[in-house]
Amino acid sequence: LCRILPGRFLYWIALRGADVSYLFDARGREAVKSNLRQVLPNASEERIVYETRWVFRNFAKNLTEFFRFRTFSRAFFEKRVAIKGLDWVEAARARGQGVILLSAHLSNWELGGAAMKILSGYKVTGVAAMHRYGPVNRLFARERESLGLTIVDAQQAPRKVLNALRRDEVVCMIGDRAPMEH
User: Fold this and answer.
1) Would the N or C end of the chain have less CB density within 10 A of its end CB?
2) Is 174 strand, coil or helix?
3) pLDDT digits (tens, 9 = 90+) for 95-141
4) How much is the pLDDT for 176?
5) In what order do the strands lie in the sheet with 170-174?
6) In a 10 Å sphere around its CB, with 0-12 CB exposed, 13-18 middle and 19+ buried, how is residue 115 labelled?
C-alpha cells in the first residue's frame, strides 16, 4: 500500500495506527517516556505524555516513508534532502581511508544514508541493530538494499566496518542507541 496510495493518505493512516499503538503498547509507551524524561528533565508530565504520543506518530510516518523507498527517484532526493558538510566528507575521503558518519537516532536515518548514496555516489554501509524476528529483519534488509545501501549487523560491525573503511566507503552509524535493545 505504501507504494501505491497517495502520501497524504498514507500519513493519515500512519497517524491513526500510531495512536492505536500508543494506547495499547504500554511497555513501549513507558520506554519512550523514560527516555524523554532523560532528555527533558524539567518537562512536566503533561509534556512528556504529549511528546511520547508524537514519538509514536513520527515513527509511524517514518515507516510509511521507509516502505516507499523504492518509489523515490533521484529528483525526490534532490528536492527534499539537503546534505550539509559534504565538503568535510570529501576532504576525509581524499585520504583514501573511508569516513564514519555518526548521527543520533532521529527521524528516518535510512533516508539520510540513501540520500548520501544517491546524491554523492559514494558507497554507503550502514550499521543497524537487527530485529529479533527473521522475517521482519529480511523485510527491512530488502528495503534498505533496494536503494543500494549495504547494511551490517551491529553485533558483527567492528570487522565489517573496518573492511568498509579500507575500501574507502562511507559508514553510517547511530550513536545513541545500544544494539542490545532489540
Assistant:
1) N
2) strand
3) 888 999 888 766 777 888 888 888 888 899 999 888 888 899 898 88
4) 66
5) 99-103, 170-174, 124-128, 150-153
6) buried
Q: Which residues contact 14 (CB under 8 A, 6 or more apart)?
A: 57, 60, 61, 63, 64
Q: Any bridge partners for residue 151, and if so which?
A: 126
End-to-end CA distance of the chain, in Å?
Answer: 27
d(CA 4, CA 148): 22
Give the largest Cα separation in the chain, rounded.
51
DSSP 105: S
Task: Tell me how crowded residue 17 is: count the other CB atoms within 10 A of its CB.
Answer: 15
Q: How far apart are CA 89 and CA 66, in angstroms?
A: 25
How does DSSP classify residue 130?
Answer: P
The C-alpha cell of 48 is what? 512528556
Which H/E stretch holds residue 152? strand 150-153
